Amino acid sequence: MRFLLDAEQREFAASLDAMLTAADTPSVVRDWSCGDHASGQALWRRIAEAGVFALAVPEAYEGLGPRPVELALAFMELGRHAVPGPLVETVAAATLLASLDDTGPAKRLLPALAAGETMATVARDHGYALDGEAAGIRLSLTAEGLRLAPGHGTERPSLDPARRLSPLDPGGELLATDPPLAPALLLARLTTAAQALGVGLALLDRTVTHVKRRTQFGVPIGSFQAVGHQLADARIALEFARPLVLGAALTMTEEDVAAAKVTACEAAYATARTALQLHGAIGYTAEYDLSLWLTKARALRTAWGSPDECRDTVLSGVRRW
Amino acid sequence: MDLAFTQEDEAFRAEARSWLHAHVPASPLPSLETEEGFAAHRAWEAELAADRWSVVNWPRAYGGRDAGIVRWLVFEEEYYAAGAPGRVNQNGISLLAPTLFDHGTQEQRDRVLPSMATGRTVWAQAWSEPEAGSDLASLRAKGVRTEGGWLLSGQKTWSSRAAFADRAFGLFRTDPDTPKPHQGLTYLMFDLRAPGVTVHPIRRLDGKPAFAELFLDEVFVPDEDVIGEPGRGWRIAMSTAGNERGLMLRSPGRFLAAADRLHALWQSQGSPRGARTRVADALIGARAYQLFTYAAASRFLEGETLGPESSLNKVFWSEYDIALTETALDLLGEEGELADTDWSERYVFSLAGPIYAGTNEIQRDIIAERLLGLPKGRR
């Protein structure tokens, strides 16, 4: 038992962090929110160059995966930097395509996906797909099977302006009638948990910086116990979500992944509430960059498994830790 | 990075499990906060010690198995899963012993640890005073130099287990003229039955004498019972606070077992919807605490010091424990009010968690200042 990242894993996360820091992601998010995908696509290719999407693609299809621990680390960084786009959906699609009995679709679609040339999105049971406009591969999962959807329907705004939801058009090529869903859904849940954890860590970081700088009554507001204790609680929640996310990436059991999802999303959301409160009115504005993370913390809570669904998975699990 | 235990670890787990299966009392011992229960728990410590299960991570010379921290975690998981009794000498084993390993003399370790391992000597702590709680460094109980030792005088309070324990350890002011309050303190061990000591049991919420006031009137303590240098007691007390001691105060095994029992109770009641979230969160919280501790233990084994992050841990488990036991009492319905059940004993014990071992307010101050780097404020 050595539940500790090795040097290579830490280095991978640090280099991704450095690349995303230099990429000025807030302005990419702003572009993306306006429907201008050019800067997002450029960033996407750099994320692919760092190897992120390949981590979900098996070696047989020119990938490096599946590597859930490294994916979790990558998604924590993507969340910390509020990177927009169908990130989770792309790795879920890669898993789904790679797990089909017919290797044709995977051979045709996965290399471009691993290389970051194409984004993918997924809709389940006639529900919503994220960023259907930007995605080149739109997978529709219904009772009749898995289809490559020909297009998407009317987009609806998300509470997170960087996310747009739309149903996928019916029809299109039928890729499989009974695709194995579990591995893809599990990876989607895990990477959403990791992304949410990253969002929470960024919110805490930004809020700590704010309360050290912001002065009222002649002192930094961070010196007030009422402020410090709220941030301490946020730190506790996030630090106990972190081992669940990494542990789930190691075991990849339904229970562990569900526990990680609900805990990371609730920790990130609680941190968002604290961040908003401690920033005061400026935090309530769309213009201030904090909003990019605040709104994402809300959106990720219900994506790929609501808190209730995740708790049900934990309770119905036959396997104890 | 992995969560896999070695074959040797698994063999150790199997050995612990089978020993516990053969030895754990079939019905729970009486509450360890009563005279009868204290004696029964002391006898249980001796039974554990007879087969080297009382302090598995200690060196063999003192009654342990040199098992290391990972196997200690494994043992604790098996211990609580088996429904084994609470540990009456927890104060000694998890607070005093690590201090002796780090700061004691060889003579002190040889003299103190073996009888701690068997429960022949049960230890109480003597930190708080009526006017020194969270502001512990303002303590006033004093030690005055005398031939060959110190004369202790003053009052200590909230001394857990002291009603029935044998010896105690704590901080005393041996130099009244220092620029700062945390200077001039000395870490001492003393006999609760020595001349000049009066132990006045205090009844906790349910009436059981779980702690005591200690009145000391020129109690002689020989030099051999001073830990570390006189006047350096604060640093000694704090240096191990954040180390493995912070990690070992409450093992994940306890909460994993308690969460499983809560889950079973919930299912036996027909899995009521109303308690669903809380039961799920108890299961999840136990897993989170287990993995958090595995990560901390792994860092500790790499030679890292853990420091202020033990404050995260303390707030987490103390609040978790209350939430879990409250849920159990709620599930029990009108039975939840009964004071003579295992769950109510656990509940009353859990209520003290956010208060002892540094209140959760103090822990949050530490997190804010030392982990988040926020400016020190007025308290």
From TrEMBL, chain A:
Keywords annotated in UniProt = FAD, Flavoprotein, Oxidoreductase
Query: What are the coiled-coil residue ranges?
Result: none
Name listed for the protein in its UniProt record: Acyl-CoA dehydrogenase
Q: What are the Acyl-CoA dehydrogenase/oxidase N-terminal domain coordinates in residue numbering?
A: 7-117
Output one GO MF annotation: flavin adenine dinucleotide binding
Family listed: Belongs to the acyl-CoA dehydrogenase family.
Question: Upper taxonomic classification of the species?
Answer: Bacteria, Bacillati, Actinomycetota, Actinomycetes, Kitasatosporales
User: Required cofactors, per record?
Assistant: FAD
Q: Does the keyword Membrane apply?
A: no
From TrEMBL, chain B:
Extract the InterPro entries matched here. Answer: Acyl-CoA_Oxase/DH_mid-dom, Acyl-CoA_Oxase/DH_mid-dom_sf, AcylCo_DH-like_C, AcylCo_DH/oxidase_C, AcylCoA_DH/ox_N, AcylCoA_DH/ox_N_sf, AcylCoA_DH/oxidase_NM_dom_sf, Mycobact_Acyl-CoA_DH
Q: Name one GO cellular component term.
A: plasma membrane
What are the recorded GO MF terms, alphabetically? flavin adenine dinucleotide binding; oxidoreductase activity, acting on the CH-CH group of donors
Q: Which residue intervals define the domain Acyl-CoA oxidase/dehydrogenase middle in the entry?
A: 124-218
Q: Which family does it belong to?
A: Belongs to the acyl-CoA dehydrogenase family.
Species of origin reads Streptomyces canus
Domain of life of the organism encoding this protein: Bacteria
Q: What is this protein called?
A: Acyl-CoA dehydrogenase
Keyword Oxidoreductase carried by entry: yes
Keyword Flavoprotein included in the entry's annotation: yes
Cofactor entry: FAD
Enumerate the spans annotated as Acyl-CoA dehydrogenase/oxidase C-terminal domain.
231-372
Q: Which residues form the Acyl-CoA dehydrogenase/oxidase N-terminal domain?
A: 6-119
Q: Which UniProt keywords apply?
A: FAD, Flavoprotein, Oxidoreductase
Its signal peptide is none
